[in-house]
Specification:
The complex is a heterodimer. Chain A is mainly α. Chain A has 2 domains: 1-39, no CATH class; 41-128, Serine Threonine Protein Phosphatase 5, Tetratricopeptide repeat (Alpha Horseshoe), CATH 1.25.40. Chain A has 6 helices and 3 strands. Chain A has helices at residues 9-14, 42-59, 63-76, 82-98, 102-114, 119-123, and strands at residues 2-4, 22-26, 32-37. In chain A, strands 2-3 form a two-stranded antiparallel sheet. Chain A is elongated. Chain B is an alpha+beta fold. In chain B, 34% of the residues lie in helices and 19% in strands. Chain B is built from 1 helix and 1 strand. Chain B has one helix at residues 9-19; one strand at residues 23-28. Chain B is globular. The chains are: A mainly alpha, B alpha+beta. Chains A and B meet through strand 1, helix 1, strand 2 and helix 2 of A and helix 1 and strand 1 of B.
């Protein structure tokens, strides 16, 4: 659905869109699952959209499907800012689906190696015992 | 493949619900 500020200002208010561009990904029941605010280059935008779709699956508690989708983002967009976030949530999805906590420490190490400056690496620090 | 953009939020929400598919909303101020 496309909304222009001049044509549909009420929809901006309805969905609390206070800046453009804003892109929302909603679950089929209308619940917001992901929000992208501000311009992004094409490749980064594509990766963020895929993060949003993976988030929909994650929130449905379809853990193996979510893990697959997040891992696909890491594989398909390894240089994007979305990749470390996807790696983090793939680990969470795996843990939730299997109760195998060892994945968290492994992924924390991978994040440190591949994406040392990412905030998602910092978020994973407790997983590696730091 | 071109995107088929809906211009009606309520019908888009209904369609998403019926098809059980996620809905993408794009809020823009860009010139048409």
């Amino acid at each position: 659905m496309e909304a222009h500020i001049k044509e549909h200002p009420a929809w901006f208010h309805r969905f609390d869109a206070s800046w453009t561009p804003t892109v929302l990904i909603l679950h089929s029941n209308g619940t917001e699952r992901y929000r992208i605010e501000g311009y992004l280059p094409k490749e980064e935008f594509r990766a963020q959209l895929e993060l949003g779709l993976a988030r929909v699956v994650f929130k449905e508690k379809k853990w193996s499907d979510a893990e697959r989708d997040y891992n696909a983002i890491v594989q398909n967009h390894p240089e994007s800012d979305a990749a470390p976030e996807a790696m983090y949530w793939a680990a969470v999805s795996h843990y939730k689906g299997t109760n195998d906590h060892t994945i968290l420490g492994k992924v924390a190490q991978q994040l440190e190696q591949k994406y040392p400056d990412s905030i998602w690496t910092k978020k994973a620090l407790p997983w590696s015992g730091h | 493949m071109p995107v088929q953009w809906s211009k009606d939020v309520d019908s888009a929400l209904e369609e998403a619900k019926a098809s059980r598919r996620p809905l993408l909303l794009d809020f823009s101020a860009a010139p048409a």
